[in-house]
Amino acid sequence: MAVTHVRGAAPGGRPAPAPSGVVRPPGRPRDTRCDTAIIQATLTELATSGFGGLSMEAVAAAAGVGKGTVYRRWPTKGALVADALATLAEPYEPHDTGSLRDDLVAALNSVRRHSIQTLSGRIMPRLLAEKETHPELFETYRQQVIVPSRERVASVLRRGVAEGELLADLDIDLVTDMLVGPVSYRQYTSGSHEVSGTRIGQIVDTVLGGIRLC
Amino acid sequence: MAVTHVRGAAPGGRPAPAPSGVVRPPGRPRDTRCDTAIIQATLTELATSGFGGLSMEAVAAAAGVGKGTVYRRWPTKGALVADALATLAEPYEPHDTGSLRDDLVAALNSVRRHSIQTLSGRIMPRLLAEKETHPELFETYRQQVIVPSRERVASVLRRGVAEGELLADLDIDLVTDMLVGPVSYRQYTSGSHEVSGTRIGQIVDTVLGGIRLC
Amino acid sequence: MAVTHVRGAAPGGRPAPAPSGVVRPPGRPRDTRCDTAIIQATLTELATSGFGGLSMEAVAAAAGVGKGTVYRRWPTKGALVADALATLAEPYEPHDTGSLRDDLVAALNSVRRHSIQTLSGRIMPRLLAEKETHPELFETYRQQVIVPSRERVASVLRRGVAEGELLADLDIDLVTDMLVGPVSYRQYTSGSHEVSGTRIGQIVDTVLGGIRLC
Amino acid sequence: MAVTHVRGAAPGGRPAPAPSGVVRPPGRPRDTRCDTAIIQATLTELATSGFGGLSMEAVAAAAGVGKGTVYRRWPTKGALVADALATLAEPYEPHDTGSLRDDLVAALNSVRRHSIQTLSGRIMPRLLAEKETHPELFETYRQQVIVPSRERVASVLRRGVAEGELLADLDIDLVTDMLVGPVSYRQYTSGSHEVSGTRIGQIVDTVLGGIRLC
DNA sequence: ACATAATCGAGACGGTACGTCCCGTCTTGTG
DNA sequence: CACAAGACGGGACGTACCGTCTCGATTATGT
């Protein structure tokens, strides 16, 4: 179940020597390849077993690392998961094709793809389940993943308002919910069939029908 | 965290002696109060700890019965949870106030209330997390809880179509998603503030703005 | 490395039902076969690895028993070893052939045999090594094994005094040391060759030469 | 529990530069103060924890030295302990006061004192316990410590034979056992009180009573 | 009334996973 | 090169449960 084995890494993967001028602690420095392997294994385990079912031992084994190496860096499971979630941050990349509708469709398609294909998307329902028990973890996830994702939709909407295509007093947050909500909700709870591209177009059109200037 | 303790039940709670004419196995008959206590404890544990964190031992303890009493009835955790989920079925109660908008708002408010106040609503994210691992459990939940809940909204929409208030070729499933989706999505993923009654009205109005005949 | 496997024991080995009139705790009673298997394994491990090298896990494995079964009975290693040592008690069997010399030789031969052939004899140097760290354990061993062993020699000497064959004011404890000491000392510290029967006779004769009435 | 800290040593303690004319390996020469500190720490640890409980890491820490410094000199624990035991050799110092009895008493007193006061005496039972597992270590100890100690007694006895005070065909080894045995045996196994000076006199007298010419 | 037979609470059992600790090895920078 | 410092993989330890099992006590039914 190992994601990245440290021992198998290419020799060239070793980190460069520390830049001069930085005080370094004595002794053998920590191997940064272990950090990445552990974080990656944590995310995989999180997606597979959830926070409750995640064990430090399984993470260490999946990372190909001794248990002590994990505990030396993160004293608790919560701290490890929190740091792992923090790496999920996605850069905000606005796109502007000129067409308001096309940009919204594109943004929602990216939401859809995220939930299916990425590790982060598979982690989402696991964290949702633990939201009552560990609200801070889901909050981290929300800030790192959900908020940027919503922001892509919201920025398109704001542009529509600025360009006079949408109602001037539009509640951006509300409309974002009305676009992202149906896609995300359906994606996660549907029995088998996922949300299709056609359906996303219909969702956008229906919402636009109610908020566009006429 | 025991919900119902068998031992503490009033003597009058005992089931009536079996009706004559029915062949009964010899020996002491099973105590039906144990069944209900175990099912109830299972649902509570499911809401509290999720499927992965649920243990037969904890269920037995919460129900105030011995472990053997649980295993005598359900050999596996999955069978127990499946039976427990099957009891969540909610009766379908349509309401018709004459106003399409008011009925939709009422139906969505019921969705909102369900997710917050009921045990079933707290179980939902737990099962969602296990959907990949145990799809049959979530499917049971969907049939027992989600489908009836959506049906309340869909029936109102169908009535609107029949009465000529809504577009004739309306995609009921799609619009149901667009009404339930934003509420449910926001309710479960929001940081702190829940969905307000006002917002539900806005959601209904926005959707109606795009699908109402004009 | 298992000494006695519980599972493989004959069905007839089950303990008899408790005598009536004794209050019994509820639940499944403890299996006494586990107790004996654990004690036996403890003594074997003690002889093999000493007190410091003895681990509860190894004892459990050697006894063919789960670790919990050991900890349920003895919370600490010290308590387990103490109880194990208490079972080493040997019944005192005086022998009287009429000849003072022959009886002393026989008693010393029994000391010699004990140190070589018995588990208890192999445990002795292990406990001696831990005498500074855990004096109470060695004290238990002394009372259970060493004292009775010395008493066999001392009782013969006392008889010799009573029958007028030995000096009336003989220091029994001292002479016991002078008989047991050379045998035990040589037995444990000698490079390879053990103490022979001939040598034991010489030791007895030499001591008798100094304390016999002449 | 460090015996000698290298780091804390006075600068003057550095070894003198090597005499010219000797071929020396290139690079920094080994610090001889480390050797002595490690050996000393090994003996202390051996007395405190025994062979099984002794770890290279603990030795290094007690010596105030890095672990690598120990492993560079001795690859295994056995090699280190063997070298440490080899340093325990005691010079043989016969004494002759003219009185056979007094010399024997003095020799036995030295045995007694050794077992109590010296590090070597506290190591003795530790090694005894490992005699089955590591016979070569105890053999080293025997040659370095036990044999010289016995020789002091034996030489007095031989002198007694030569001077005609003892039986001509005396078994020196046997009588040595009979003198050293009771003292050592009692010293190590006694519950609390040690062997007194008076008792040593009694032992010597009793043995002499049986072997002296009359 | 009394034997029969299955249920029930309680808890012991073998097994396993957990987090901690520590060992011996390896890898840094400094002298 | 030697040396300290300490990170690393591996493994053992004691704990905590899990699901199964085995007790005595209880409770209905048939004779």
Automatic annotation (TrEMBL), chains A, B, C, D:
Residues 1-30 are annotated as: Disordered. Keywords: DNA-binding, Transcription, Transcription regulation. Residues 32-92 form the HTH tetR-type domain. Pfam families: TetR_C_11 (PF16859), TetR_N (PF00440). GO terms for molecular function: DNA-binding transcription factor activity; transcription cis-regulatory region binding. Residues 55-74 bind DNA. It comes from the Bacteria. PROSITE patterns: HTH_TETR_1 (PS01081), HTH_TETR_2 (PS50977). Gene3D superfamilies: Homeodomain-like, Tetracycline Repressor, domain 2. Residues 7-25 have a biased composition (Low complexity). This is TetR family transcriptional regulator. It comes from Parafrankia soli.
